[in-house]
Design goal:
By secondary structure, this protein is an alpha+beta fold. The chain folds into 2 domains: 144 residues, no CATH class; 523 residues, no CATH class. The strands form 2 sheets. Strands 1, 2, 4, 5, 6, 7, 8, 13, 14, 15, 16 and 17 form a 12-stranded mixed beta sheet that branches. A hairpin with a 4-residue loop joins strand 13 and strand 14. About 20% of the residues have low confidence.
Length: 696
């Protein structure tokens, strides 16, 4: 017997599956004379079903409760009783207390369960026409929106496959004995917090400041549209689209939010202090995403849209130097420093190309920079990520005020590795997961720091990220496959609408659908499409700290990710997404209308629907692949929006404003949080000074 609370707590599509299972094993009913009751025809069943709906909807709210009970109990005699399948015996007493929309949904669920069960009992083949007709009537009665007339199916024959790359330089390996972090789970302290003894070489304790590192000695970064090798590979493999991890990971996240119904992350592993904090993705992660799709030599190259992300920060700059620090021995690393006595980097070394992994699906070719390798790992390669402490991420322009904020403990709300992992899960894990899969990598190695000192290291495998984000690796793989093909479909739609033209695609996911705006861009491929907006924003806001920078290198292990991860995270345990609006305030209003909107533009909506084992998943239900035999089928529909042009442009302006505020917010953070972080930092500096004095 199913317990009522257990039955009610599982998703609707799983309830139907249980009802189907139970109904299959029921014996045919018989009359008092011994004759077997003949099953009704599809037409009789549909007519009776519709009458039940009409009868229920015509009753006053106070009288409907009796129908909810009878709808599940007045079935054929061979049906299981309501108590057996977990139906409520006290529904009549409680239904009048429910809101009307909940009563209607409950009715729909019970009636559909009844209809499904009757069809299974008879052993007859379902009549699709009867089912669809009945469902249409039910939707109309329940005032549900009409279903789109045509749904496209995801082509599950298409797989993401590795593409062999031409000869490339060998991938770097870890130095300083850091390789042992790869095979021992958890955080590895650089210095033991109790004994103050080093677990790794003291060379790693202090980071190189940007003014002391010669960034001109690094290989310049190439966007997808300027990567001639990637373009040649696309033409050789008959590919239509090309892109990189840095250019597609944010927009793929938006597709995941849509198909997963904004599924929250799994925070069950954290201590009680952090379990009470929000478990959904951060506001910055959910901000609309844009990409520039540039037409070039018969191929569309996807570049990240940098309209508002107009400058690098100390985090993105230091990500480059820390990567070298982790993979080079001290003598070799010193060659990249200014005012060094070591032999300088030669032009041949500087022009050495980066090493990439490539993959394809359909007509989509993707590249991923390979940071590091170890042949003992299952997938050999992994990514390097640097993670700054929470106050620096949230107040980057004043990062020097928090150099005393250290990571001193494993667990806790502040100054702990657990807090940094928790924030990273909500703000960066989804992008990291997609990047790892694009590059066929095994996981990521995270180095925790405060721009002045390194505190520890942690290796996070692909499987661990999958468990936190998706529930299991199978769900992660299918989610990745589905979002890639949905993005492919959107690219097909956009390039068909504007053939042989460069376009910008901006997307934002909501509870029921995704808004997609496709702008035709000028033919000048090198033009800075957001120059006007940049100038306006620069005139209204103060600049960030000046540093010597080079062009952003592809995720070079988090320089781009760190910049994007300065999103609006909740500042303390009482905050949630609705209370953190102060962090979006700016000292001066950003005039979004300064961006030119005179380009041709088309507004689309993307809707999806999921089926688990051929059972429809309601929008509010989570998608779970708990068994190896579970099958997830996804369908989608892309429609051009028919509304007044001004209304569409207002929606688009709102989306672009969210992006502008995210990247250019200045000041007006939660002041109490900032003061708390500064107090912790000052105490940390005092502790450091006392420690140094005691060691003398």
């Amino acid at each position: 017997m199913l317990v009522r609370s257990r039955f009610a707590s599982i998703p609707h599509y799983q309830q139907i599956a249980l009802l189907r299972q139970r109904s299959i094993h029921q014996t045919p009913a018989a009359t008092s004379t011994g004759e077997t009751i003949q099953p009704r025809t599809d037409e009789d069943r549909a007519e009776s079903f519709t009458k039940n709906v009409d009868s229920a909807e015509s009753q006053p709210d106070q009288q409907r409760s009796s129908f909810y009970t009878s709808a599940t109990t007045t079935t054929e005699t061979n049906k299981p009783s309501t108590n057996e399948i977990g139906a409520e015996s006290d529904t009549s007493a409680k239904s009048t207390q429910r809101p009307q929309h909940q009563r209607r949904r409950s009715l729909a669920e019970r009636l559909w369960a009844k209809l499904e069960g009757e069809l299974e009992d008879t052993g007859e083949t379902k009549s699709d026409a009867v089912i669809l007709t009945t469902k249409s009537k039910l939707n109309k009665k329940l005032k549900r929106p009409s279903t789109p007339t045509k749904w496209e199916k995801i082509d599950y024959r298409l797989k993401y496959e590795r593409v062999e790359a031409p000869e490339q330089p060998e991938v770097a390996t870890l130095a300083h004995g850091l390789d042992r972090v790869l095979f021992n789970p958890g955080v590895h302290y650089l210095k033991d917090p109790r004994t103050r003894e080093f677990n790794f070489t003291p060379f790693l304790e202090y980071t190189t400041q940007p003014a002391n590192f010669d960034y001109d000695m690094l290989t310049p970064y190439k966007t997808s549209s300027k990567d001639t090798n990637l373009l040649d590979m696309a033409q050789a493999n008959n590919m239509r689209y090309i892109g990189s991890t840095s250019s597609v990971s944010s927009i793929l996240s938006q597709f995941y939010f849509l198909i997963s119904h904004f599924k929250p992350v799994n925070t069950s592993i954290f201590s009680e202090t952090l379990k009470s904090m929000p478990n959904k993705f951060t506001r910055g992660t959910r901000t609309p995403a844009s990409v520039n799709v540039r037409w070039k030599d018969g191929v569309y190259a996807i570049d990240a849209d940098k309209t508002y992300d107009i400058e690098e920060t100390v985090l993105s700059v230091m990500g480059k130097s820390m990567e070298k620090m982790l993979t080079l021995e001290p003598a070799e690393y010193e060659r990249y420093l200014k005012d060094t006595e070591a032999s300088p980097i030669t032009e041949v070394e500087r022009s050495q190309p980066e090493t990439y992994a490539y993959g394809k699906i359909g007509q989509f070719l993707l590249r991923s920079q390979l940071d590091c390798q170890d042949p003992r790992l299952p997938r050999k390669t992994f990514d390097l990520k640097t993670r700054a402490t929470v106050p620096i991420r949230l107040d980057i322009s004043n990062y020097k005020d928090y150099l005393g904020y250290s990571l001193r403990r494993s667990h806790g709300l502040y100054e702990s590795f657990e807090r940094e992992y928790f924030d990273m899960l909500r703000s960066a894990f989804l992008k990291y997961s997609f990047q790892v899969r694009i590059g066929h990598m095994d996981g990521i190695l995270v180095a925790y720091h405060n721009t002045w000192k390194l505190f520890g290291f942690q290796y996070i495998s692909r499987e661990e990220m999958d468990a936190r984000l998706f529930g299991n690796s199978r769900m992660g793989s299918e989610s990745f496959h589905n979002v890639l093909l949905l993005f492919h479909a959107v690219l097909d739609k956009a390039t068909k609408r504007y053939p042989n033209k460069s376009v910008r695609i901006t997307v934002s996911s909501g509870a029921s659908h995704m808004d997609i705006f496709v702008e035709q861009l000028p033919d000048d491929d090198d033009k800075d499409y957001g120059a006007d907006a940049k100038n306006e924003i620069n005139s209204n806001t103060s600049s960030s700290p000046s540093t010597t920078t080079t062009t952003t290198q592809e995720e070079t292990s988090t320089q781009t990710a760190e910049k994007e991860d300065q999103e609006v995270e909740e500042h303390h345990i009482e905050d949630d997404d609705d209370k953190g609006s102060e962090f979006f305030e700016t000292k001066n209003r950003i005039d979004i209308d300064s961006e030119v909107y005179k380009n041709p533009m088309t507004h689309y909506t993307l809707a999806t629907r999921s089926f688990i084992n051929d059972i429809f998943v309601e929008k509010g239900d989570p998608i779970v692949l708990g068994k190896k035999t579970d099958v997830w089928k996804l369908q989608y529909n892309i429609n051009e929006v028919r509304m007044k042009e001004q209304e569409s442009r207002n929606i688009f302006r709102a989306m672009r404003l969210q992006q502008a505020v995210l990247h250019r917010r200045q000041g007006q953070t939660n002041q109490s949080f900032i003061n708390l972080m500064k107090d912790i930092s000052n105490r940390g500096l005092e502790y450091e000074n006392m420690e140094k004095s005691g060691n003398k």
